[in-house]
Design goal:
The protein has 361 residues and is mainly beta. The chain contains three helices and 21 strands. The chain has a 17-stranded antiparallel beta sheet. A two-stranded antiparallel ribbon has the order 7-8. A two-stranded antiparallel sheet has the order 15-16. The longest helix has 6 residues. The protein is globular and about 55 Å long. The two termini are 13 Å apart.
């Protein structure tokens, strides 16, 4: 339930997308972190502005604004078109505000949901992305960015400590600053019967100033899909680790629909390291409907106590968890809709809804 509109303004294109549907679904899950009486607080939508030739030399400008119930994100990118065999350079500026539920959220209802911990992150970053030409099945991207992170409470005020009096930044002040060098590598190979994907991301904090964070963070995702007659089996393994300076918000969070289903976001645990395994088997029921059974498990590998302030222990998170269940996948011309019914290790049942690939009008 919403509205979509595209407008041409000279060479620029403006896309509007306003959606009221998310409000109806999300209202049952959590409260917005800002109690605003404005009608705009009920709107979920996006605004996209594209210009194909900003300065007359093939510079492409993209401005994207996404607004959710509890978060917002502004992304500005500018790139100059170059031949495919050359590296593509993109200048990026981003500002976002989002609840920090995965680390500081409080598990409720036998860990099936996560409530607000009164910590939100206001992030600003600016830098350059350098995408290397793809070779065979591999692609890579290198970026260097300045990042400024400022924690705020649910009323929008800057904070340096959480509800229990523990620091929420690495510096101990109301903000952290860092320069991050990031290297991403991706591998993808597919045929009619299977596919293989692998991605590796390495981030290095560069201490240009003495108070800036220095760390090394690594995470990977490996997935494999195999067709078994009419059925399709998908498995994936996600993991990561971080060494050096660390703020609590940099820890890996485990739990939620993109991690271990049956748990709230971050309700399994949070640590300096993590490992999450997912497996799912889908069977076609008809041309538009598939059934699925799944099994998820994850662990912080005993690293939860190494996060400053040990938020996982203070909130009673178990550190490891398993979830299983079944679901339906509905495919239509408008997009893909899915529903999952999951049970966690505490026998708490949770229903998830999701949709993707919606066609624009």
């Amino acid at each position: 339930m919403g509205a979509q509109k595209s407008i041409l303004a000279g060479n620029a294109k403006i896309d509007f997308n306003v959606d009221f549907t998310h409000k109806l679904c999300a209202a049952f899950m959590f409260n917005p972190f800002r109690n605003s009486g404005s009608p705009l607080s009920l709107v979920v939508g996006s605004l996209c502005i594209k210009h194909p030739n900003l300065f007359g030399k093939n510079e492409k400008l993209d401005v994207l604004w996404d607004k959710g119930l509890c978060d917002s994100n502004v992304l500005i990118t500018c790139r100059k078109t170059r031949p495919e065999w050359l590296s593509q350079q993109t200048f990026v500026i981003q500002h976002s505000i989002s609840p920090e539920i995965g680390i500081h959220g409080i598990p409720v209802d036998n860990y099936s949901r996560t409530g607000s911990g009164d910590v939100n992150l206001c992030r600003f970053s600016a830098g350059v992305d350098l995408s290397e030409p793809a070779s065979s099945n591999w692609s890579s991207k290198t970026s260097i960015k300045f990042e400024h992170v400022r924690p705020i409470n649910d009323d929008g005020r800057s904070i340096s400590r959480d509800l229990h009096g523990f620091p929420v930044t690495c510096s101990g002040s109301c903000h952290d600053s860092m320069v991050v060098l990031k290297q991403e590598s991706r591998f993808a190979k597919a045929n009619d019967h299977s596919f293989t994907r692998f991605s590796l991301k390495i981030e290095q904090g560069i201490p240009i100033l003495s108070k800036w964070l220095i760390f090394n963070r690594l995470n990977f995702v490996a997935s494999k899909g195999i067709r078994l007659g009419p059925a399709f089996f998908l498995s994936s393994l996600t993991g990561g680790s971080i060494v050096g300076d660390i703020a609590p918000y940099q820890a890996f969070s485990i739990g939620g629909p993109g991690s271990v289903r049956g748990y709230g976001e971050g309700a399994v645990g949070s640590g300096r390291s993590c490992l999450v395994a997912n497996s799912e088997l889908t069977l076609p029921l008809n041309q538009m409907l598939d059934g699925a059974v799944f099994l998820d498990c994850g662990s912080d590998l005993g690293s939860g106590r190494l996060v400053p302030g040990n938020p996982a222990l203070r909130h009673g998170k178990p550190g490891s968890g398993i979830g299983f269940g079944y679901g339906l996948r509905f495919k239509s011309r408008l997009g893909h809709f899915q529903v999952d019914y999951a049970v966690n290790a505490f026998q708490q049942r949770t229903l998830y809804f999701g949709f993707s690939n919606l066609a624009s009008g």
